[in-house]
């Protein structure tokens, strides 16, 4: 699951999630600046990755 600034990023018309779970931002604007967090978890562990997007 990807979050932008701590919120679910549901701008489907401007985002795409690839089969490897990487996030692609289309038509990037200043509204896209900020922290993107990818949270992956299962019964064994949780992995959190954070990316800071600067424009």
From TrEMBL:
<dbReference type="InterPro" id="IPR007110">
    <property type="entry name" value="Ig-like_dom"/>
</dbReference>
<feature type="domain" description="Ig-like">
    <location>
        <begin position="1"/>
        <end position="49"/>
    </location>
</feature>
<protein>
    <submittedName>
        <fullName>Contactin-2 isoform x1</fullName>
    </submittedName>
</protein>
<dbReference type="InterPro" id="IPR036179">
    <property type="entry name" value="Ig-like_dom_sf"/>
</dbReference>
<dbReference type="InterPro" id="IPR013783">
    <property type="entry name" value="Ig-like_fold"/>
</dbReference>
């Amino acid at each position: 699951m990807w979050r932008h600034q701590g919120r679910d990023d549901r701008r489907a018309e401007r985002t795409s999630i690839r089969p490897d779970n990487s996030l692609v931002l289309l038509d990037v604007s200043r509204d896209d600046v900020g922290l993107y967090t990818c949270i992956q978890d299962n019964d064994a562990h949780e992995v959190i990755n954070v990316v800071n997007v600067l424009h």
